[in-house]
Amino acid sequence: MSSEDTRTLAVDAVPESLEVRKYWLSIPGTGTRTCFDRRMIYVGTSPDNQLVVDDPTVSRVHLKIEADRNGHRVRDLDSKNGTFVNGMRVSDGYLPPECRLRLGSTELDFRLGDESVAVELATRNRFGALLGEGLEMREIFALLSRVAPSNATVLVEGESGTGKELVADALHREGSRSRGPFVVFDCSAVPRDLVESELFGHTKGAFTGAAANRVGAFVEADGGTLFLDEIGELPMDLQPKLLRALESREVKPVGANQRTKVNCRIVAATNRNLEKEVQNGNFREDLYFRLAVIKVRLPPLRNRPEDVPLLVNHFVEALRQETPGLGKLQISYETMAKIQRFHWPGNVRELKNFVERAILLADEGRIDTRFIGAEQAAELRRAPAPPPTPETTSTGALHVDYTIPYKDAKDRLTEEFERLYWSRLLAKTGGNISEAARRGGIHRKSLEYLLKKIEVE
In this structure, what DSSP letter does residue 105 have? Predict the structure, then answer.
């Protein structure tokens, strides 16, 4: 067997499994209730939420309920009227097995069910060029790792800048078609009267200006992957033709009498909610179901602040490698906290642009938020204060979960305090463990053991 016949595939380790209890959310007195078996849901007035509330006193994305190994956690997402659990306002806390939530003027009864579902979480913090170590991204990575070796059609939804093309590229590279072509077709960038020709090809003389035969994107991607970006912008009259091509795996060039067989994997992406577009009559239902064999929704960066440090450090290291002579760079704890607080409407793409600009304009290698644009700076000033640091925390500011036994609540608070304390001190000492141990008054070996226990690097 020659070396050309052998290739190496990156295979994820056996994913972790998280048992998630099903639960019910019901509106008191109406008989309306919904069962959820997902690890995380969003609640608010936006149609993109898993639970949509028709109430003007409720924010577009008011709160989220997220399951982890400690239970079901509710987080208020900077709503205008707050979130209340059994009459007590909360910003972040675990829900008891049965309780009443109030958001705006709407009340919801929460009740845990008896059944559980297993949710897979990837053990690695990346998939292709996508990065993330929070549960939401690790759940997506586990799904993508399962799907990559297959030929299943994948629909990727998400806001602009969340990395939809990176998903398509990673599925191609980690799949069985990695040696074939990866072709990108942007449905929003091609003039409407040329979309059919660009997708399926045309023959010489098929229309004015067709001076020669041309193969379309489907034929170009034969043996590889065709990425249909902004699929929600495809004109309605062309959607039946795309559906026919997907089902028959044949294309008919404009002006041709014969069909051409094609063999390519399809990954489509959109910044719209195609399910809602179907309901509104803007997208064909049959085409939607043909595309959404596997559906992945990438979260906006504002919903995954725990991933921001990983992304920032990745962009810093990438620019350091691309820029010879670039000195040592520093990001203070306060600066990173501010970066995590910002909503980043342009998502990961905007964060990357900020990091690159801040590095190039940094004084003495110190990255600072003053390099954020004027509109971004104004948004930061409006954002809520960062989580309290050990220097400012009081007992009244600690997140206490009164639904668990005293010892468990105490252990959880102690671990939270230790993580904050040593993260802060390590940031002040530039990661110098010996100096942090000296300032903290403990032996270096003791600190190394503690950092490993609380998972601080």
Answer: T
User: What confidence category does residue 41 fall into, taking pLDDT thresholds of 50, 70 and 90?
Assistant: very high
Ranges assigned E (strand) in 191-348: 225-229, 250-251, 260-261, 265-270, 294-297
What's the average model confidence in pLDDT over 35-47? Answer: 93
Instruction: Flag whether pLDDT at 415 surpasses 80.
Output: no
Whose CA is closest to 33, among 41, 23, 42, 43? 23
- As a whole number of angstroms, the distance between CA 285 and CA 282 comes to 9
Residue with tokens 């994948």, as numbered in its chain: 154
CA angle 157-163-167, nearest 5°? 75
Residue 41, SS3 per DSSP: strand
What is the rounded distance in angstroms from the CA atom of residue 334 to the CA atom of residue 315?
A: 19
Helix (H) or strand (E) holding 424: helix 406-428
Long-range Cβ contacts of 55-63 (<8 Å, 24+ apart): 55/103, 55/104, 55/105, 55/106, 56/104, 57/81, 57/104, 57/105, 57/106, 58/103, 58/104, 58/105, 58/106, 59/103, 59/104, 62/103, 62/104, 63/101, 63/103
Distance CA 388, CA 195 (A): 53
Q: Read off the pLDDT band of 218 (50, 70, 90).
A: very high
- The two structure tokens encoding residue 396: 């009244």
Could you tell me which of 108, 19, 22 has the C-alpha nearest to residue 69?
Answer: 19
Q: How far is CA 161 from CA 156, 164, 341, 364, 371, in A?
A: 13, 8, 18, 30, 20
The backbone torsions φ and ψ at residue 190, rounded to the nearest 5 degrees and listed phi first, read -100, 130
- For 31-55, letters b (16+ CB in 10 Å) and e give eeeeebeebbbbbbbeebbeeebee
The most confident of 6-10, 22-26, 197-201, by mean pLDDT: 22-26
- Please tell me the predicted confidence (pLDDT) of residue 386: 40
In the chain the first and final C-alpha atoms are separated, in Å, by 44
pLDDT of residue 455: 64
**In this structure, how many other beta carbons lie within 10 angstroms of the beta carbon of residue 308?**
21
- Across 126-141, average pLDDT: 93
d(CA 422, CA 436): 8
Q: Cα angle at 134 between 131 and 137, to 5 degrees?
A: 55
Distance between CA 182 and CA 310 in Å, rounded?
28
> Residue 457 and residue 447: Cα distance in Å, rounded?
11
User: What pLDDT digit, counting tens, does each position of 64-103 carry?
Assistant: 999 988 899 999 998 989 999 999 999 999 999 999 999 9
Question: Positive or negative CA dihedral for 166, 168, 174, 177?
Answer: negative
Run of H or E residues at 446: helix 444-453
